[in-house]
């Protein structure tokens, strides 16, 4: 698999989390009428791509992140009613992506062991899971709907750029979304050829496939992001990171040396570092070198997503460096 522009510190420690056995003669926790039913109704979340998480279905929810990202929102109706309202808000935004993400809402009053397993220190807390692991740093506090949309747009673009186009299947609210009866996650057919190329390690083929999509529809933001990221992968194939950094340190105004390290920073998830490096290069250079540095930076903006907050901030800094 190609390098991910996400922070993945490791799998969640579930050693202290045990699934409770259904009580004799009663419904399973979280089932209609069972001990977890009231808690499951607590956030009031309703939607095809929203699941109320309990200790009984937590593992299944984690496993569903093997198909597509799971947006885990930790809330507490008793300690912070606002956090429960926020959980509903996140679920509402996620629904608009039609399976690109699954909103997984955790009421820690009803499921304290989940909070312990996730080492939750603050409520509300949101984290995005992919392949059973955190795909972003945990995001404490409350984001606006606009900020949530920007975040999910960016994640969707980055995932598509890496050929990860699976989607959750719609399910009943309060139940984990089931994957299709297939060993492979659902794939948006538009991006399947590019994904197949990336899985084969054929970066040139992925560039060509994304280019076809962009040529056919220049407004396809995910295809444009995919093309930009595939080009980054193409430029960094076989590059020795340490040697590249040494060359950039020795040649501060060499456009090729600096842009290569910026590419590597982007792939490593150091987005701001990549942007800052090229903005400073624009500031120091002139004429053709300045144009090359600026155009390369614009390509990295496309790879990350033009609505991303870091891109918006970098654009302002670039304008300052130019004028």
UniProtKB/TrEMBL annotation:
**Gene3D superfamilies in the record:** Glutaredoxin, Tetratricopeptide repeat domain
Chain residue ranges for the region called Disordered: 1-41, 165-189
Annotated Low complexity bias? 170-179
- Entry protein name: Tetratricopeptide repeat protein
Pfam families the record matches: TPR_20 (PF14561)
Bias category Gly residues: which stretches? 27-36
Cited InterPro entries: Thioredoxin-like_sf, TPR-like_helical_dom_sf
